[in-house]
Design a protein that fits this description.
With about 350 residues, this protein is α+β, with helices and mostly antiparallel strands. The protein has two domains: about 80 residues, no CATH class; about 230 residues, BirA Bifunctional Protein, domain 2 (2-Layer Sandwich). It contains eleven helices and ten strands. Bound molecules: adenosine-5'-[phenylalaninyl-phosphate].
Length: about 350
């Protein structure tokens, strides 16, 4: 009977829509499509069975069946779209592909430069020693012959951390710490971080120094100059000239700033050396005998020289860096060049 067929179509339509609404994933949805719209699906079978109806009833029943199929197909399509794009098939595993190497890092330019400098001095017989970055006033200043309240302390803008402690402003305190621990001879280099309240394109609040100290019998300023000349020609280039310029440090007497001939113009004068032909590299001098009093050495027995060079400065000069900040910004485009 016509009304039975229409009821059948309506019931199947509702079941199909319910099943589509309940399908939780693409697989379940596909099953509903096969169950209702597939070649042996229930709506398909129903449509096929309409052929047995009396001729005059077929058009109305056919239309009802087609509407139901279209509606179910639309609902199925919408539900499928709501699930989002299908997950792409996993590519086949190709075991013959070469493995992926993890990106390899390398030492930062500062560490490399410090290492290179220490190696050069090690070849000249100095051994590497380290000391604390948080220091007492005694080692950073007092035992280095900086009198309390003396203006020479102003040369080094100090960062105090409380309780009589400070961040060392130079590596020179390790001179005292080493001499305190052992008698002469002393032949050491001291790499390490140092801190000052400085900040511009050639000064950083944290920077790196390398201290040198040689105390032995019969050490003279000629030894100082010889060692530093050997260093300059090894670190920069074989024909690099140096000059000693009178200066002042409380812990050396006499004291000298050491300049190297400009790495850009070779000494003729240019923008880098501001026309002077020279670039300042480090501070140095003969150990002031007053220091021997602090560590129990006999100034009649021994003499010595000391120097302190900025590692950052040395790297800037050697590699032509325009700002010290490049060394501390952590920009890989910079670091990868070295
Ligand atoms: C000193 O620190 C002395 N202790 C050096 C010394 C040691 C003299 C032994 C005599 C005997 P000065 O303040 O000049 O000296 O610093 C030495 C070097 O450290 C400078 O030539 C410079 O290269 C570097 N330097 C100083 N301050 C900074 C800074 N804020 N940023 C980067 N480098 C710095």
């Amino acid at each position: 009977m016509m009304s039975d067929v229409l009821e059948d179509i309506e019931r199947t339509r509702q079941e199909a829509l319910r099943a589509i609404g309940a399908a939780a994933d693409a697989e379940a949805l596909e099953r509903t499509r096969i169950d209702f719209l597939g070649s042996k699906g229930r709506l398909t079978e129903l449509t096929r069975s309409l052929g047995s109806l009396p001729r005059e009833e077929r058009p109305a029943a056919g239309q009802a069946a087609n509407r139901a199929k279209e509606e179910v197909a639309r609902a199925h399509k919408a539900a499928l779209e709501a699930l989002g794009p299908a997950r792409p098939e996993a590519p086949e595993l190709d075991v013959s592909l070469p493995g992926r190497r993890p990106a390899m890092g390398h030492r930062h330019l500062i560490s490399r430069t410090a290492h290179e400098i220490c190696q050069i001095f090690a070849k000249l017989g100095l051994s590497v020693v380290e000391g604390p970055e948080v220091e007492t006033d005694y080692y950073n200043f007092e035992a280095l012959n900086f009198p309390r309240d003396h203006p020479s302390r102003d040369m080094q803008e100090t960062l105090f951390v409380g309780d009589g402690l400070l961040l060392r402003t130079h590596t020179s305190p390790v001179q005292i710490r080493t001499m305190e621990k052992s008698g002469p001879p002393v032949w050491i280099v001291v790499p390490g971080k140092t801190y000052r309240r400085d900040d511009d394109i050639t000064h950083s609040p944290m920077f790196n120094q390398i201290e040198g100290l040689v105390v032995d019998k019969g050490i003279t300023m000629a030894d100082l100059k010889g060692v530093l000349t050997a260093f300059a020609s090894s670190f920069f280039s074989a024909d690099t000239r140096i000059r000693l310029r009178p200066s002042f440090f409380p812990f050396t007497e006499p004291s000298a700033e050491v300049d190297i001939a400009c790495v850009l113009c070779g000494g003729r004068g240019c923008r880098l050396c501001k026309g002077s032909g020279w670039l300042e590299l480090l501070g140095s001098g003969m150990v002031d005998p007053a220091l021997y009093g602090f560590v129990g050495y006999d100034p009649g027995e021994v003499s010595g020289f000391a120097f302190g060079l900025g590692v950052d400065r040395a790297a800037m000069l050697k590699y032509g860096l325009s700002s010290i900040r490049h060394l501390y910004e952590g920009d890989l485009r910079f670091s990868r060049q070295f």
